[in-house]
């Protein structure tokens, strides 16, 4: 039996909004219902709806104008041919990658400066589990995500951790079958090791350098994907 994929509420909401656009044959520039109206229509909270709108805005399907409303941005981009879906998701991942470089890059630096001996052991154990799963040909997405979350925790900056948590739905796109490929970013595994080694010896310059190599690798993989 295959593993059941976890689906976030905002992903379901984004699909419902897209269905609404299609069913009502809305065109570019047409106005969507208000946030309050859509929370009632879909039976969800405002935070889930707003996260769905952030995603749809990132892939150019809707445009949110403060004080004016929510509008269909480009109805042609919304047509669900495979090419448009891939190009939209590639653009989305690249935009989130820029945020990762800034925010997670800072957490890498802080973690290398502040990580405790106990957290180093925990990170090492996580990497060993990562290696075990990889060598067994099993899904490594969740242990990979756990590795990055441990580093963010080790930064010791609760505000930075909170900001990254607030975009967790977008962030997790890198770990939950990006572009429909579960193992798309397997090539980044060696950078996890070099990054861990730098963090463990409190060399923040090397840790950030290895992190940026990982981000460069991910960016190249996204751009090259067809």
Structural summary, described in words:
It is a single chain. The protein has 226 residues and is mainly alpha-helical. It folds into 2 domains: 9-78, Winged helix-like DNA-binding domain superfamily/Winged helix DNA-binding domain (Arc Repressor Mutant, subunit A), CATH 1.10.10.10; 82-224, GntR ligand-binding domain-like (Four Helix Bundle (Hemerythrin (Met), subunit A), Up-down Bundle), CATH 1.20.120.530. Helices cover 67% and strands 4% of the residues. It has helices at residues 9-23, 35-42, 46-58, 75-78, 82-114, 117-135, 141-154, 158-166, 168-171, 189-200, 204-224, and strands spanning 62-65, 69-72. The protein has a two-stranded antiparallel sheet. A hairpin with a 3-residue loop joins strand 1 (62-65) and strand 2. Helix 5 crosses helix 7 (141-154) and helix 6 (117-135) packs antiparallel against helix 10. The chain is elongated and about 55 Å long.
Blueprint of the fold:
Layout lengths: L8 H15 L11 H8 L3 H13 L3 E4 L3 E4 L2 H4 L3 H33 L2 H19 L5 H14 L3 H9 L1 H4 L17 H12 L3 H21 L2
Helix pairs in contact: 1-3, 5-7, 5-11, 6-7, 6-10, 10-11
Keywords: DNA-binding, Transcription, Transcription regulation
InterPro entries: GntR_C (IPR011711), TF_FadR/GntR_C (IPR008920), Tscrpt_reg_HTH_GntR (IPR000524), WH-like_DNA-bd_sf (IPR036388), WH_DNA-bd_sf (IPR036390)
Protein name: FadR/GntR family transcriptional regulator
């Amino acid at each position: 039996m295959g593993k059941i994929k976890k689906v976030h509420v905002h992903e379901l909401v984004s699909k419902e909004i897209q269905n609404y656009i299609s069913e009502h044959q809305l065109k570019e520039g047409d106005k969507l219902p208000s946030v309050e109206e859509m929370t009632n229509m879909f039976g969800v909270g405002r935070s889930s709806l707003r996260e769905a709108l952030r995603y749809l805005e990132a892939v150019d399907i809707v445009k949110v104008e403060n004080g004016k409303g929510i509008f269909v941005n480009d109805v042609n981009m919304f047509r669900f041919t495979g090419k448009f879906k891939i190009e939209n998701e590639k653009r989305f991942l690249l935009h989130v990658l820029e945020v990762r470089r800034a925010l997670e890059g800072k957490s890498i630096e802080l973690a290398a400066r502040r990580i405790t001996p106990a957290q180093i052991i925990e990170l090492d154990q996580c990497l060993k589990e990562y290696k075990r799963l990889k060598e067994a040909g099993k899904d490594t997405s969740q242990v990979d995500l756990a590795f990055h979350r441990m580093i963010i925790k080790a930064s010791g900056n609760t505000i930075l951790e909170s900001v990254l948590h607030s975009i967790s739905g977008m962030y997790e796109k890198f770990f939950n079958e990006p572009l429909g490929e579960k193992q798309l970013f397997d090539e980044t595994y060696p950078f996890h090791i070099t990054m861990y080694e730098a963090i463990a010896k409190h060399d923040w310059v090397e840790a950030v350098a290895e992190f940026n190599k990982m981000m460069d690798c991910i960016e190249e993989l996204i751009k090259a994907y067809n």
